[in-house]
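Inputs:
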Amino acid sequence: MNNSDKINVTKTFFPPLDEYQNQLERIWKNEWLTNRGELVNELEEKLKSYLHVPNIIVMNNGTVPIQIALKLLAKQGEVITTPFSYVATSASIVWENCTPVFVDIHPEYLTIDETKIEAAITEKTTCILATHVFGNPCNVEAIEQIAQKHQLKVIYDAAHCFGVKYKGESIFNYGNVSTCSFHATKLFHTGEGGAVFCKDEELNHKLYYSHNFGHNGPLDFHGLGINGKISELQAAMGLSVLPYMEQILAGRKKVVNFYNEQLNHRNIQSLKIREETEWNYSYYPVIFESEERLLQVQKKMNENNIYPRRYFYPSLNTINYLNETEMPISESVAKRVLCLPLYASLERNEYKRISTLIL
Ligand SMILES: *Cc1c(COP(=O)(O)O)cnc(C)c1O
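Outputs:
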């Protein structure tokens, strides 16, 4: 398949092949492929210092850590969540035999509307699972207060948040647990991969053994577990990509600044980033005045071999196995939002052409 002249919403960053090969040679020398080898440990140490977090457990993807966190914290209760996220967020709730209770989103920040959370709390509520949408933080302070008042746990799906800081601190340090995805389409990647972040040492220990079958040494068990381990091969990719983060961010910033200047138009709404956020340029959503307009723009772009994506569509409350409570803001935004191509190697003539087509 030749994808070379097609412009997609994102393009996976490939580090120089010889640098990946150098990492692979270490694996061959060690003759050690998984079960937390030298490369996984090194990747965790490097990520801890890059992200300024006290703990990290790198895992096989960004969904298993959400499921493990829900298993430990939500205990099959009602989980308050956002309808505007990737399907992994609400699917994990159902997968863990919990009940998703949707709360609508803020029309500009696109994160869960914290002022509507308390009305959704019942005796069965155990947890809030909210997404920092497109790397834009939820109102973490308000959510923390509500959680304390009602004794709820907070999990953040921070799949989009690699490198995001809020009030000078890693966004991964908020909530009882935060998760991230290192999927090939994400900002930092290991091909497939993800991570969980937890400041509380006791809970971190539970997360750790839960991702390794519950093992306490070869013959004993701390408790129930599953396989959430990442392999050395994936860690090798992570170690090869990490040195390029500055370059990746700078390239994306250039595109975002251009879109911001060009698409500053009364009929196009772009993402409002929460105050005091150091954002990571992970996605560029534009919200049109109608779905009809979105479909026109999408068609025009496709004719020009440009493929933006409808992230996130549909609103999760409308999926067949979920409940049908109406979420007017999320449903309306989901129908009108398109994520534009955004990656470091996107060329100036390309993002110029994209802006022109939209306008
Ligand atoms: C990508 C993504 C996930 C899932 O991550 P995987 O690594 O693909 O399992 C979860 N939540 C959100 C919001 C995502 O964008």
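Remarks. Residues 61-63, 85-86, 88-89, 131, 157, 159-160, 181, 183, 194 surround pyridoxal-5'-phosphate (CB under 6 Å). The mean pLDDT is 97.
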